[in-house]
Amino acid sequence: MIHLRPIIFVVGLLLATLAATMVVPALVDLADNNADWRAFLGSAVATFFIGGLLVLLTYDDRPVDLSIKDAFLLTTLSWVSLTAFAALPFIGLGLSYTDAYFETMSGLTTTGSTVLTGLDSLPRGILLWRAILNGVGGIGIIVMAILILPYIRVGGMQLFHAESSDRSEKILPRALELVAATAAIYSALIAICAATYFMLGMSAFDAACHALATLATGGFSTHDLSFGFFQSPSIEWVAVVFMVLGALPFVVLIRAATGDAKALFRDEQVRGFISFLFVVVVILAIWLTLKRDVEFAEAMRLSAFNVVSIVTTTGFASTDYTTWGTFAIGLFFLLTFVGGCSGSTSGAIKIYRLQVAGLLTQRHFTHLMSPHRIVNLTYNGRRLPNDVPFSVVAFLAIYMATVGIFTVLLSAMGLDFTTSLSSASQAIGNVGPGLGQYVGPSGNFATLPPAAKWTLAFAMLLGRLELFTVLVLFRPEFWQR
Question: What confidence score (pLDDT) does residue 7 get?
């Protein structure tokens, strides 16, 4: 049985909260004597009216235990409804609804693709609103990954059940505590990042906006050149550190912050993620030194910033890496599929799924050499549940098939193959920049046909909902449990 009344009630509360956040950029524009504050205020009033109406119509003081199926439906409806209303300020500023919805979906899913140009000359209110969308989307992604996805037992997320709750069908009793701790760590990291950016030369406004986008691994910048605008190696290295932190499991970060400092080093996913980044960064830096005549220290900075940005699905850029040659282009395309850790703000496939796939491959070759040998798969010191291997393989198959489907759809809309493939890959992985003239690091999504923008917006949503989980909505046995 689905509890629609509390679900609609929560959606109403979220819309009312969203309306309150719209007041912040309105005040910024008002302080700057910019008339755009009216667009934000009008959007806030409309959003609060609808949200408040939903709250009043569905309010009930009787306690309701939401099941995981309720929570999953709530998550999906929340993402769609918040995007629809969060797009209103963009419409008030002159964008078409297609562009407004695309920009909003990109922000809330922390993808970072944009249809806006001339960012350096835009009012501060709209730039702050884009950063807020990244920040709100980032915390929403973490909460969904920690509290909901592990319980639908698809895509291997069942590896990350909270302790002592593996068999529970109800939302965790400790849910509010976990969400509060996550929000505290998330907010603290954003504050530290902003303060560090400011001390290294960013303006207070730029520092706040970029900190929100960095920890959310969202990639929205206040400048067309992104981090290339600042021409500061120290700022880029700080961004590398905080992008990595945003791509780490926040549950592990909470443990580390509450006294278990070794939690990060014990986690197999974290070790694999950091090791992968280090190896790729060094390889690309050596290649830049040998083939592009770049000094090794400079090559390490360029490599580290751009590799970390793509792998964590942040999407910031310090330079146009597509000018580095075909090796770099091929490497960065493959990196769009990797992603960060489970329970983080990053998107794409995720490191743990690639690790499990590696374990399955290793077991397969072991069986080929020793058919009678029994090989138990373990992860993080625990034996893998029997359903995890199949779940991971199924997710990988569906992920690649979805990329293929969206590539064909975009090609049918008249886009060239490079643009279609890279656009589909980056949208589903929530990466941001792709390859080619229109969607590369120096391109702009505004030039895409409206149908392509709607298609990519839908792909971003699918990617953020972990793809496989969307299929749950169409599985009768899930809703009948």
Answer: 82
pLDDT in tens, 252-291: 888 888 877 788 888 888 999 999 999 999 999 999 999 8
| 8 Å CB contact between 442 and 319 | no
Instruction: Quote the CA–CA distance of 369 and 439 in Å, as a whole number.
Output: 46
What is the four-CA torsion angle of 166, 170, 176, 180, rounded to 10 degrees?
40
Q: What is the pLDDT of residues 408-444, one digit of tens each?
A: 999 999 888 888 999 999 999 999 887 877 777 766 7
How far apart (Å, rounded) are the C-alpha atoms in residues 317 and 219? 9
Rounded Cα gap, residues 279 and 466, in angstroms = 27
Check residue 383 and report its DSSP letter.
E
Residues 392 and 151: their CA atoms lie apart, in Å, by 15
Residue 81 is encoded by which pair of tokens?
């409804």
Tell which wins on pLDDT, 39 or 371.
Answer: 39
> Which residues does residue 383 pair with via DSSP β-bridges, in sequence order?
378
Give, for 358, the enclosing helix (H) or strand (E): helix 351-369
d(CA 361, CA 50): 52
Q: Is the dihedral of CA 35, 221, 435, 108 positive or negative?
A: negative
Geometric angle at alpha carbon 132, from 128 and 138, rounded to 5°: 150
